[in-house]
Write a structure and sequence with these properties.
The longest helix is centred in the N-terminal third of the chain and has 6 residues. The protein starts with a strand and ends with a strand. It folds into two domains: 118 residues, Immunoglobulin-like (Sandwich), CATH 2.60.40; 101 residues, Immunoglobulins (Immunoglobulin-like). The protein has one helix and 20 strands. The strands form four sheets. Strands 2, 5, 6, 9, 10 and 11 form a six-stranded mixed β-sheet that branches. A six-stranded mixed β-sheet has the order 12-20-19-15-16-18, with no helix packed on it. The relative contact order is 0.19. By secondary structure, the chain is mainly beta. Strand 3 and strand 4 form a beta hairpin.
Amino acid sequence: MFFSCSEDNDITTPRNLEEYINANTNRELDEVIACAASEDNNTSLTNIFYYPIEGATEIKYFETESTDVDEKDFSNYRRELLTSSDVFGGKLEKFSRSDSEEAWCIVTFLTNGKLHKSNPIRLKNETSSTIWEEEVTIDQTESTMPKFTWSEFGTTDNAIFFQVISDEDDEFISGTYTYDNYFQFYDTSNVVLNINTVTPENLVVDNTYSFTLMAVSEDNWVNLVIQNQFTAQ
């Protein structure tokens, strides 16, 4: 996944998430789609992925001092300044965290009249580090409509699966969520959440694409990442 970097260096915001929410009571509360995964073979580097909807500004990251707190008490979350990067050509973004200590975290941003806040994300980089694999079954019986089926590789508490199709330059094509261990491009009959704002264009025969799968737990930790390139048939 290719990305470009910027730094969140605004120091004027209240460091306490509860105070920040109270300072924005004139705004409607809304959600942020977000999850986190440890880097492959590096449990001290965690990536917090989020979907910044069009018009998102003032994207911020808050974190607790430890996991031994009430994750629903927003006064436990303090503002942290982390480097952010584009993922899949900027359709997603991520904060990068270099710390082996586990914690809870929340991502926020503003849009017109709204304060968006993610659900608490339990960082498990030491106790349940993300598994990175390449193996996925790709059935291309239907031309330009590959069906992806995957194993959970021994992970047991996956609540939902996030699939991304990107081109050979890692530019975003499609992003969907399913409860099932399969997804066919572009059949949304088993899709339960969709970040595509328009219907993706058809794949092109003989072009190279990438499939990325994230298996996400109830507390928004990514247990498993599968990445695999394929040639459309």
